[in-house]
Amino acid sequence: xxxxxxxxxxxxxxxxxxxxxxxxxxxxxxxxxxxxxxxxxxxxxxxxxxxxxxxxxxxxxxxxxxxxxxxxxxxxxxxxxxxxxxxxxxxxxxxxxxxxxxxxxxxxxxxxxxxxxxxxxxxxxxxxxxxxxxxxxxxxxxxxxxxxxxxxxxxxxxxxxxxxxxxxxxxxxxxxxxxxxxxxxxxxxxxxxxxxxxxxxxxxxxxxxxxxxxxxxxxxx
Length: 221
Known about the structure:
Helix content: 55-70%
Protein name: PIN domain-containing protein
Organism: Lysinibacillus xylanilyticus
Order of helices and strands: EHHEHHEHHHEHEEEHHHHH
CATH topology: Rossmann fold
Number of strands: 7
């Protein structure tokens, strides 16, 4: 990836797992502000909020009070289109069950991701940031097309799914944080994987090093 200009000028719905990772490191480097430095408009669905720990909920509360992030309440946001929103929730949930069963990962995705995808579709939000891999297939197979900036005269595009590694790549190549700091963040995010499946953990770090090589990023810092 070449150097990128941040923040990305589009709306992004952020999943509980991403917030959890950042909350764990918010006192180190500048992780506390990293999401809004990558995405211009950060949305947290109330279903995602419900999945968070009390510490992470307080983190979200502070961000929303400072008007850095937006906590979305679907009953308020979709007052006149709530039936359409509910219909999309059902479609996404049904497809997710199908995809998870195919991948042997039944029950891997929570209600927060489903609600975030439905809301993103309704609002023509371009991105969902989540480390749940099933979402990519769900987006394509439902399918979840949106219109950039709500312009229905333009060609529809799929909602983009940014996994944790995609997010880390943006943070490094957008010169938000040093590669060494982001790699440590990526390692901590996968600490349980290191304990349970060390070989898979090694593969994750190899993927990080291939996508974000040290020699490429040194010139930026």
